[in-house]
Design goal:
Helix content is 70%, strand content 0%. The protein has 15 helices and no strands. About 8% of the residues have low confidence.
């Protein structure tokens, strides 16, 4: 594994900044899995993958966020495969039980009672119940299938969004894009270069004439400002809860909130979005930036 070019302090900062992304990816995956799958185990695997990603990260790999998400998703799938506790012995017991049930059904002309099945297997009814418990715990979906296909209706309850959820999501995405376009010039350039164009921090550092650590700080500042700007529009009580601040910084922030609010009218925000395309930088931005803005909330 190549040695990271980052200092220990920078590595620690990257881990802290991206820990919420682990929670976001775990929540995204856990929503498609049976409830008995341990969420804590998934979080532990994701955190370990994040640390490994930080230690192996090289700037030429592109933005760290995209690289880390790939590593974390892979680790989560590996953990899910490891957690598939339906061992061969359990499956063998299930086949044996089913065979006995079929034989007794033919002999008796009816479905056998549990006590009859247990007696034919030479085990107690309690042990037979234990086999059933093992079967229920082993009903874990094909994780690779769940991760790679969009059509999981056959395995999962219908989770289609309601009309209200669709409208809210469109409005949230519209505010996200407005929050980018209303950023101060240099912060907007960092966000567009990092998320839209997948530029490494070194390239943005050279373009803006600042250090890579300053680019990282500017990205964090931009995400925080965007988060506050979006919350000011979506949360009616946000303004009332904020302390009244005086000074130029407070006025600039208030002006930014107002610019985001005035960027488009309601009809424009909730209109049907343009079709997604694989090469669309804006769509890639919506996916990666929205994760960071949402995870930081």
């Amino acid at each position: 594994m190549p040695k990271s070019l980052l200092s220990s302090a920078d590595e620690d900062a990257l881990v802290r900044d991206h820990l919420p992304v682990v929670g976001y990816l775990v929540a995204e995956l856990a929503g498609r899995l049976p409830r008995h799958v341990s969420r804590d185990d998934l979080v532990s695997a994701g955190n370990a993958a994040l640390v490994a990603a930080v230690r192996s990260y090289q700037p030429e790999r592109g933005p760290f966020g995209s690289y880390a998400r790939t590593r974390i998703r892979g680790a989560l799938l590996d953990e899910l495969r490891r957690m598939d506790w339906a061992a061969r012995s359990v499956r063998a017991e299930v086949r044996r039980r089913d065979r006995v049930v079929d034989e007794l059904t033919c002999q008796l002309g009816r479905r056998p009672e549990r006590a009859e099945v247990a007696a034919a297997l030479g085990i107690s009814v309690r042990d037979l119940d234990g086999v059933d418990d093992d079967v229920h715990r082993s009903v874990v979906l094909s994780y690779q299938h769940v991760a790679e296909t969009r059509d999981v209706a056959a395995e999962l309850p219908d989770g289609a969004p309601t009309p209200e959820q669709v409208i809210l999501e469109r409005e949230r995405q519209a505010y996200l894009l407005a929050a980018v376009e209303c950023l101060p010039d240099r912060l907007r350039r960092v966000v567009e270069g990092y998320f839209f164009e997948d530029l490494p921090m070194a390239a943005l550092s050279a373009e803006l004439g600042v250090s890579e650590s300053r680019i990282s700080q500017m990205r964090a500042e931009a995400v925080a400002l965007m988060r506050e700007g979006i919350a000011a529009q979506l949360d009616a009580g946000a303004g009332a809860r904020e302390p009244r601040l005086d000074g130029a910084a407070a006025r600039r922030r208030a002006a930014y909130y107002a610019a985001v609010a005035a960027h488009a009218d309601y009809r424009t925000r909730v209109s049907v979005p343009a079709p997604r395309t694989a090469s669309s930088g804006r769509e890639k931005f919506r996916g990666s930036a929205q994760e960071e803005v949402a995870a930081a909330e």
